[in-house]
Amino acid sequence: MDVIRPSSFMWGTAFALSLLLGGCVDSAAPLLSDAKPVLGPTVRLHGYTMIEGQASGPEVGTFRWDGAQYRVVGRPTFDVAAFTAIAFAGDDLIVQAKSSRPKIKGIEYGLAHKLADGIYQMSAIDEADADEATRAKFCTGGGSSSCRVATSEALLAFARATAAKPFRIGSLAIVAKHGR
Could you tell me the pLDDT band of residue 2, with boundaries at 50, 70 and 90? Predict the structure, then answer.
């Protein structure tokens, strides 16, 4: 396997691994469109959960582009059925992912930040990072989280709030190419 040399869109693809933490902001359906197969037709992701400076893992999954998103192939060791990554700001990407856990309904979101070629720091987009006015304006009930959003405007407001906070490491992701 080769480590993929990331393009500007790749940083967040590994973000799907950060959703191991559980999404803090979710939606009933994907809110971001125009995703591209920035990792090629097939990709293998290795994720490591970070707690108090200690890493555990790896969690491993292989995903194949189906024309609209990366879908899991086989049986991953983490709970992501499908994901896309969309450029956000600087080295950050927003990743929207569908969980493979039946109790998680809808789409979960997170941020990925590039640390080095093929290595990303992952964190869920957290409604607690936004001020009360933003939460009151955009959070609705329902879903698997305490903050379900309905528009891309709402998602971007929470993503900006999370990006403005000191980056909390939830996981590390290594992106490895697994096919041509």
Answer: very low
Long-range contact pairs involving 138-146 (C-beta distance under 8 Å, separation at least 24) = 142/28, 143/26, 143/27, 143/28, 143/105, 143/106, 144/22, 144/23, 144/26, 144/99, 144/103, 144/104, 144/105, 144/106, 144/108, 145/22, 145/23, 145/24, 145/25, 145/26, 145/108, 146/24
DSSP string, 35-98: ---TT-SEEEEEEEEEETTEEEEEEEEEEEE-SSSEEEES--SSSEEEEEEEEEETTEEEEEEE
The model's pLDDT over 48-81, given as tens digits with 9 standing for 90+, comes to 988 887 888 888 889 999 999 999 998 767 788 9
33-53 pLDDT, tens digit each = 989 887 778 889 898 988 887
User: Six-digit token pair at 116?
Assistant: 């080095």
Instruction: Report pTM.
Output: 0.80
Q: Write the CA distances from 30 to 2, 34, 67, 82, 88, integer angstroms.
A: 30, 11, 15, 11, 16
